[in-house]
Amino acid sequence: MASPSSLLCEEQFQCSICLEIFTSPVSTPCGHNFCMVCIGGYWDSSVECQCPMCKETFYRRPDLRVNTFIAGMAEQMKKLMLSPPEEHSAQPGDVPCDICTGRKLRAVKSCLVCLASYCSVHIKPHYDAAKLNQHKLIEPVSDIEDRLCKKHQKVLELFCREDQICVCQFCTETDHSGHNTVSLKEECRQKKAQLGETEAEVQQKFQDRLKKVEEIRQAVELSRLGAQREAEDSEQVFRALVRSIERSQAELLELIEEKQRAAERWAEGLIEELEQEITELERKRTELGQLSHTEDHIHFLQSLPALRPSPHTKDWSDITVTSDLCLEAVRRAVSQLEERLREGLEELPEIKLQRLRRHAVDVTLDANTAHPHLILSEDGKQVRAGVEPQALPDNPERFDTGVNILGKEGFSSGRHYWEVEVGEKTGWDLGVARESINKKGMITLRPEDGYWTLWLRNGNEYKALAAPSVLLPLSPKPRTVGVFVDYGGGQVSFYNVEARSHIYTFTDTFTEKLYPFFSPYLNDGGENAAPLIISPVRPTD
Length: 541
Known about the structure:
By secondary structure, the protein is α+β, with helices and mostly antiparallel strands.
């Protein structure tokens, strides 16, 4: 059967105002219990009659009476505390009773007036109601001397806000005279309020970092998906290459076999012709041999004219048969295979992006072309849209209607590549513009007017501004856009750098110098205030 001490807990009979065992406990209408003196004093010092625990407000001050049941249980708890069991002996790490001699019991309270700690036996005098308001009991502490003023040996019960230290009453009359001092309770209340603000700030940072972790995880997942997509694309390319190799091999074998068959037919024809001549020559040789051995002079002389002319034969001295029938065919097949392999590898996104980065150029924004609403960074690598226009000279190079800006460097030949970080912006324009574009008044972004551009509106509407414009359902959304210009090849291409994917390519003929074109679009009440950033191109692996 459980002992009474295991069934009762000191905290169950502790007043939340004085933090001591109930003395004359009373219950409020909301069901919470307090010492009669404590709750009465609390209401006397308050504007409203309110429960200290749940903050329920009573429009009439309740008529409180002692709860005899709780009072009896509180007395029983005091008796249990005054009769500690053997296991209440002070253990390492406990605060020992300062009064016990010999075996010291564990202290249950420390008194700031007596400057001593007491076990449940020696604390008994402090539960005398007459002394309750004269002594200050706290949870047991071993450093009770640190709670005294070193100079006046009085309890530290005030806080000096000028010097940010705890002081005693005498300090306010001497070293801290005229200083702003408040009770420790008041200062703790204010500091806890400040702590709440700090806690809220820490919580916000905590949430921000959780969000950043999630962003990184999403980026890793996008990278994984991109790698998977690249692997699948590469597999398709190499499968096509293998099929092409097998097809080329089959074509080559067929060609070799056909040439071999033709060579054999030609050789057989030669052999047949040679065999016919050999037969004729053999017959002629036999007749001549027979004639040379005849003794019939008349027959010899009459037959000789018919046999003397040599039989008609072909000149075989220039006829040769070579065994190298297919070398040129092999060379052509290998050359074609090499070209197909090169073209296939060029289409792999990773390899293509690496090749494009070999043409990276250093692009800087031209402040002389910037619309007055645009704000540039000192290094000329970032541009964002402001709310109010700046006082800038209206020079011929400056855009006066569209919030646009050009790069300083123009291109009239070669290949050029740069990358622009667009982040989470809800609107932007990127591309190139020819040198003779109109920068004043209304502007239409289309190739016939000298603009080859891509834009974003409303956070998810991507378009290639061709004629007509082309809606681009991009997924994932590009956070960094690569722009590639092949002037001689007549191409302007856009790429999603993170996804390593192609977005769109304009094909045209260029006759003027081209300049990088940028627009961070409107500020949109701060929703699109982030800048466009010309980011350095990472070196290829």
